[in-house]
Amino acid sequence: MGEASKVSRYLYTVIILFVIWLFLTNSLDPQELTMGFVLSLIIAALTYQVFTKYGLSNLHPKRILYTVAYIPYFLWAMIMANLDVAYRVLHPKRPINPGIVEIKTNLTNDIAKLVLANSITLTPGTMSVDVKGDRLYIHWIDVKDPSLEGASKHIGKPFEKFLRVIFHDDN
Amino acid sequence: MVKRILAIIFILVIGFWIANALAKVPFGEDKMLVGKYYLENVKEQTGAINAVTAVVVNYRGFDTLGEVTVLFIASTGVAALLWRRREERSAEVDGSLILKTGSRVLLPFIMLFGAYIFIHGHLTPGGGFPGGATIATAFLMIYLAYKEYEIDHNLFEPLEGLSGVSYVAVGLIGLAIGGYFLFDWIWQIWEVGDIGRLLSAGFIPIIYTIIGIKVGTELTGIIDRMIKESKEVEG
């Protein structure tokens, strides 16, 4: 999928900034809305070129749905990983087997890779060390499977199925 | 032994002094007359909810103009010290993909947040200085991520000068209308806005927007100067 037109990219940036403004001010006062709208227009004009590539098509209902679904999914994964690490810390025998593994990702979009790497880092027990091309290097507290395929299936795949749709890798 | 006795005497003497000094301070009374005056009159006189901002921009506006000048001198000083040894970045490679993408995607959000901080200076904690610093961090991140990146000096430097001039201009308009420098004519004569909403507090949001732009561009300029350490000029 190619780049969207300038107008579409600009409008998308304005919309996202305005939504963020609504969250920041937590107010529907017309003065706040006007100021937010003006600021969104100005800041979007300065930054839309670096901010987005696909423009308004990011707001396709299917992508919004997947984004909304991703939040509880990710929070759940984070809670489970927290409990798992807490268990390892408190266990008298300290059952850890740390190491750095390489995983492969099918995502091609840079922003998708960024979100994937950060999702991996934010779930305790795994931490992204580096991204090179389609490979991520992950420090893993308990290496269950050192092979490329096995590690990818354990660490990356659960997040990837969401990110692929959210960030336009679904073609 | 003598040492210990001397130490005890010394401590007793200090204790006596401190006790004497504190004995004259009335207990439980409000000594902060100036602070009390500000807190009691801030709403009627300036229209701002945030008393700190009102003191900084309105009651002591001249002092803040001085602070802005100090920052300007600091930035000029950095430029003067480093002007012969610029041009080259020492970074050999760009940042990793995560840093590069992250700084690019977060740029609009950080700028919006900085603008939010300085626009709401009279309502919430914050104001022009933290707002401007927030905006400068966005550019710092881009500088760290991309070794080729350089701000548009033709845009930043005039903007910095223009915001400094507009601050003085706002002060001079006050002088013309109200009779003294930095007189808040918008609140005291025009009486624009309702206390507690965005449009209130006279010229505080205007001055804070000016300060926000000035601090943002100035700190970004300092970052630009300092990150290009480099190739000493021979001779």
List keywords for this structure.
heterodimer, A: about 170 residues, mainly alpha, 2 domains, three-stranded antiparallel β-sheet, B: about 240 residues, 9 helices, about 70% helix, about 0% strand
Notes on the protein architecture:
- The complex is a heterodimer of chains A (171) and B (235).
- Helices cover 61% and strands 11% of the residues of chain A.
- Chain A has five helices and three strands; from the N terminus they run H-H-H-E-H-E-E-H.
- Chain A has helices spanning 6-25, 30-51, 61-90, 110-122, 148-166; strands at 99-104, 126-132, 135-140.
- Chain A has a three-stranded antiparallel sheet with strand order 1-3-2.
- In chain A, helix 1 crosses helix 2, helix 3 runs antiparallel to helix 5 and helix 4 (110-122) packs across helix 5 (148-166).
- Chain B has 235 residues and is mainly alpha-helical.
- Chain B is 70% helix and 0% strand.
- Chain B has nine helices and no strands.
- In chain B, helix 3 (51-59) packs across helix 4 (61-82).
- The longest helix of chain B has 26 residues, at 153-178.
- The chains are: A mainly alpha (171), B mainly alpha (235).
- The interface between A and B is medium-sized, with 30 and 21 residues.
The helicity of chain A comes to 55-70%
- Strand order, main sheet of chain A: write it out: 1-3-2
User: Which word captures the global form of chain A?
Assistant: elongated
Strand content of chain B: under 5%
Task: Give a count of the beta strands of chain B, DSSP E runs of length 2 or more.
Answer: 0
| Count of alpha and pi helical runs of chain A | 5
Helix share bin of chain B: 55-70%
Order of helices and strands of chain B: HHHHHHHHH
Arithmetic mean of pLDDT of chain B = 82
Instruction: Report, as a whole number of angstroms, the end-to-end distance of chain A.
Output: 8 Å
How many structural domains can be distinguished in the coordinates of chain B? 1
Multimeric status of the protein: heterodimer
What portion of residues of chain A belong to β-strands? 5-15%
Largest sheet of chain A: 3 strands, antiparallel
Spatial shape of chain B: extended
Radius of gyration of chain B: 24 Å
* Poorly predicted tracts of residues of chain A: none
Radius of gyration of chain A over alpha carbons?
19 Å
Q: What's the pLDDT, averaged over the residues of chain A?
A: 84
* Greatest interface by residues involved: A-B, 30 and 21 residues
- What's the total helix number of chain B? 9
